[in-house]
Amino acid sequence: MQRRTFMGIAGAGIGMAAALPASLKAAAPDDAGLPDLAAKAVPISREERQQRVARAGALMRAQDIDAVLVEAGSSLVYFTGIQWWRSERLTAAIITREGEIAVITPFFEEPSVRETLVLDAEVLTWNEDEDPLAAIGAWLGRRGLGKGRIGIEETVRYFAVDGLQHALPDATIVNGAPVVRGCRMIKSPAELALMQIATDITMAAYRHAVPQVERGMTPRDIGALINAATRKMGGSPEFELVLLGEAAAYPHGSGKPQEVREGEVVLLDCGCTVHGYQSDISRTFVFGEATPRQRMVWNQMRKGQQIAFEAAQVGVPAGTVDDAVRAYYQTLGYGPGYKLPGTSHRTGHGIGLDGHEPVNLVHGEKTPLAPGMCFSDEPGIYIPGEFGIRLEDCFHMTESGPRWFSTPAPSIDNVFG
């Protein structure tokens, strides 16, 4: 469940068709004839995961790190293929700079964990009355790393870090982010291809669902239409957020009841996954005729998105992209900075296996942009008490600059091109 899903979905439409009552349309979405766009998707290969482990080893040597611990989650998937969830029972992997891998998991989970393990690894198991961190410490000790420098991936929970420190009191615990980020921030052609397919599915789902939306539809109704189309085309829905009217003035929405009404702003923010890789696209338009003020703010926001795109050049610090947008918005009377009305959040976030992953297009971020990095571009404009406009498309960096995954919206009357 993603950050936006719980806020629900509200409806939208441009030139809506009238047929079934809203509730019946949502219950029986018309998805006949939609193609399986994910049929051509190629999963990440074993060879590519081996290359990732080798890359991690090179980064460990450069950072003087002997091994890195990653917990269940996207980084475990990234390196080993293991698809598992976090609970109080630790499942994790330790990767050494020489490329050795140990996976620790409860004894009774071993057969299940092995089902998605792609690489050669020693699987260490622990029973309910045993300490999994002691097993990891012993494994490292047998490799002469009892006094080594052990990197911790940045999302690993405290109990695991504390337990490892007690298991290896002479080891030095260090930040493993330079290793894990150094691998994951730069997407391979295979990763970019999966993200492109996920993007194509979300855009096609929008185009299919929006003409079916009618006055009176609720967030749940619209979510059902979008998700049904997404599944039909081979994507796995990851989140769906649609906000109406004033609710669009709050980036992740409102829990108040909403339904489609004439003349109100509609904000769609949805994404899916294909073999784990994510899309994230937002469109904002008006159900019915847009007012001059709605058109003005929409055009301002669309220009802000383009300014961010053009500022994203290889070698520039990521934070300068955010700065460029805010400088433009301030000339329009928004802000300054993160003040409202204006843009109260960063211009964009990294994206890949996680919907939000390092690094971000945010003021002060000094990481230089490099080919293979992927970002959202979504400097929304929010006017509390009135409405908000957010257009979001993702791009990836190439040697010659940024390249869109999805084509930005041409106008408030034609947001899907």
What does this structure look like?
This protein is an alpha+beta fold. The protein is built from eleven helices and 17 strands. The strands form five sheets. It has a six-stranded mixed beta sheet with strand order 4-3-2-1-5-6, with helices on both faces. Strands 7, 8, 9 and 10 form a four-stranded antiparallel beta sheet that branches. A three-stranded antiparallel beta sheet has the order 13-16-17. A hairpin with a 4-residue loop joins strand 2 and strand 3. The longest helix has 21 residues, at 189-209. The protein starts with 21 loop residues before the first helix and ends in a 13-residue tail after the last strand.
Tell me the radius of gyration.
23 Å
Number of strands: 17
Secondary-structure element order, N to C: HHEHEEHEHEHEHHHEEEEHHEEEEEEE
Total of helices:
11
What structural class do helix, strand and pairing data support?
alpha+beta
Largest sheet: spatial strand order: 4-3-2-1-5-6
**DSSP helix fraction:** 25-40%
Topology:
Elements (H helix, E strand, L loop, with lengths): L21 H6 L18 H18 L3 E5 L2 H7 L11 E5 L4 E6 L3 H5 L7 E5 L5 H10 L7 E4 L5 H10 L4 E4 L1 H8 L4 H21 L9 H14 L3 E9 L20 E10 L2 E2 L2 E6 L5 H20 L7 H13 L16 E3 L6 E5 L12 E4 L3 E3 L3 E3 L3 E6 L2 E4 L13
Parallel strand pairs: 1-5, 3-4, 5-6
Antiparallel strand pairs: 1-2, 2-3, 7-8, 8-9, 8-10, 11-12, 13-16, 14-15, 16-17
Helix pairs in contact: 2-7, 5-6, 8-9, 10-11
